[in-house]
Each structure stands twice: as structure tokens, then as C-alpha cells.
Amino acid sequence: MSITKRLIPNVLREPAVALIGEECYVSLVEQLNVFDTDCLKYAISKGLGVGLVLGGTIMKLPQLIVIVRAKSARGVSLAAYAFETLSYWIITAYSARQAYPFSTYGENFFLGVQNVVITLLIVYYAPRSTATQLAGAAVATAVGAYILLKVPMSYLAMLQGSTIPLTFLSKVPQIISNHRLQSTGTLSSFAVFAALAGTFARLFTTATEVNDPLVFWGYVGAAVLNVIIAVQMVMYWRSEERPGMPKYREDQKFPVAQELETAPIGIPSSPRKHDSITSNPGGSGRRWTRKLD
């Protein structure tokens, strides 16, 4: 009898066997056979899968908290979250109905739930938001979830294939928004980098445990786009504190123009490049003319 077999109590052995199977448990734990590559890969995949599921229960919470504290969803794309949420629900429904291990897709369920809350917050904090719009978003979410549970499996498989373009549609609006603003706004850095790490880990677990190209290539697309967003997060880090960058609000698309409208007549704001001063021939004061790029 091996030392580990005598030392490890049944209360720990049973969950481990349930996770990686009797054969791999005996090989890796009781016989300490670290050269059993198949069981080693399987055990690593299971460990990563459980970690991803547990991490998925909280991964979006920092983004949710940032929006609530700021009372704004500036920089967070509604289209991106809507498409991403749909993608999460499709993956969850498809994997569950295919009877794949929960450890290979479980985080998508928890991320989808959190995304629903964030999407509703984006609608709620949007300028000129109405209760009707918020209720409409909630009803659309419920109807979509019901359809995914009832649609025939053949159609659901097609929807699973659509998660690749859906992933593209969910990430590209956010990438464009970041580039246009030269800022990531209230986008949570924790959520961005956690998503990046999660997609790479999920590529490994999918390749190890699930022989399904539809699922695998969906994660490949997500990984590529998550890399781009993570790079933007690094590029635009602390961009809001750069000198000379105008303050931006949801209702303020043209800061300079608004400044001109609110400035007292005859009293210029702080001089800018290309501003010019022209004397009034009548001598009654100064006439300010402004040339804007």
C-alpha cells in the first residue's frame, strides 16, 4: 500500500476520484506516476476547469461595481455586452444539452447571468433612458433564454457555430469604442485580463476533454479579440489623467463647441492653438474670432 493511500482520508479521496476518475487517481496520487501524460493532462484540465467555473462566478463583479459606483457606463459598449451575453447563453445551452462536463463550460452560465445585470445597468444609466427600454431589455433576455432551452438540437448546433461571428460582434464594438475615445473608460481591467486568461485556459480544457471543433474555434476567436482589448487596456492606461484631454460626458460629444456656447459674451475661454484676436475698428472693445480645426 502506498504512503499517499494511507495518508489521504476518504473525505478527500472521493471528490478527487469523482473529478479525475479512479484510474487517474490511482496512477497520479497513489502510485505517484508523474509520467502518465494522459492522466496528467486530464487532471490539469479538470483543475483549470474547476478554477474557471469558480472564477466565473465573480469575474464580472468588478465591472458591475465600477458602473454602479460611477453611476455611468461610459466606455462600456451596449452592443458588445448584448452579443457577448447571447454567446454565453448559447454555449451554456449547447454544452448542457450535449451532456458535456460542467467543468468545461460552467463559467459561461455564471458570466451570462452577470452580463445580463451589466447590460441592464448600461441601459439604465444611458442618457434619456426610460423604464420601457429597461423592461424591454429584461423581457428580451428572458425570451432568448427560453428559446435556447426549447429549440431543436440541430438548430442549437447551428447557433453554436454562430458564436464565432457573435464573439467578433461582441468584441469589435468595444475595440472601436476604446480606439475612438483613446480610453477604456469604466471598463474593468480585472475583467479584461481575467477574460484573457480564461479563454486561453479554456482552449486547453476544450482540446483535452471536448472533441468539438465548434466549441474550440469559438474560444480561439474569443482569445484573439481578448488579446486586442488587453493591449488597448495597457495602451490607454490612466489616459483620463493625460494633460489637455477634454472632459467627456455622455451628453457632451463636442467639448469645444459646448464651451463656446456657455462662455460669457465678450469673454474668451483659455486660448487655444489657432485662436486669434482682432481689434474692433470702432474702439469699443475687442472682437474675438476663433478658428477651429
Q: What is the gist of this entry?
A:
With 293 residues, the protein is mainly alpha-helical. The chain has a two-stranded antiparallel sheet with strand order 1-2.
What does this structure look like?
The chain has 293 residues and is mainly alpha-helical. The chain has 3 domains: 3-35, no CATH class; 43-239, no CATH class; 262-290, no CATH class. The protein has helices at 3-7, 10-20, 22-30, 37-56, 61-70, 78-97, 106-125, 131-150, 153-181, 189-209, 213-235, 255-262, and strands at 275-279, 286-290. A hairpin with a 6-residue loop joins β1 (275-279) and β2. α4 runs antiparallel to α10 and α7 runs antiparallel to α8 (131-150). It starts with a helix and ends with a strand. InterPro entries: MannP-dilichol_defect-1, PQ-loop_rpt. This is Mannose-P-dolichol utilization defect 1 protein homolog. It comes from Calocera cornea HHB12733. It is a multi-pass membrane protein.
What is the average of the pLDDT values? 79
Number of domains: 3
H/E series: HHHHHHHHHHHHEE
Low-confidence stretches: 241-293
Largest beta sheet: strand ordering = 1-2
Alpha-carbon distance between the termini?
Answer: 82 Å
Helical percentage: 55-70%
The helix count comes to 12
User: How much of the polypeptide forms β-strand, as a percent range?
Assistant: under 5%
What structural class do you assign from the helix and strand content? mainly alpha
Query: Compute the gyration radius: what is it?
Result: 26 Å
Please count the beta strands (DSSP E, at least 2 residues each): 2
Q: Any idea what the shape is?
A: globular
Largest sheet: 2 strands, antiparallel
Region (Disordered): 263-293
Membrane topology: Multi-pass membrane protein
Keywords: Membrane, Repeat, Transmembrane, Transmembrane helix, Transport
Transmembrane segments: 78-96, 108-126, 133-149, 184-204, 216-237
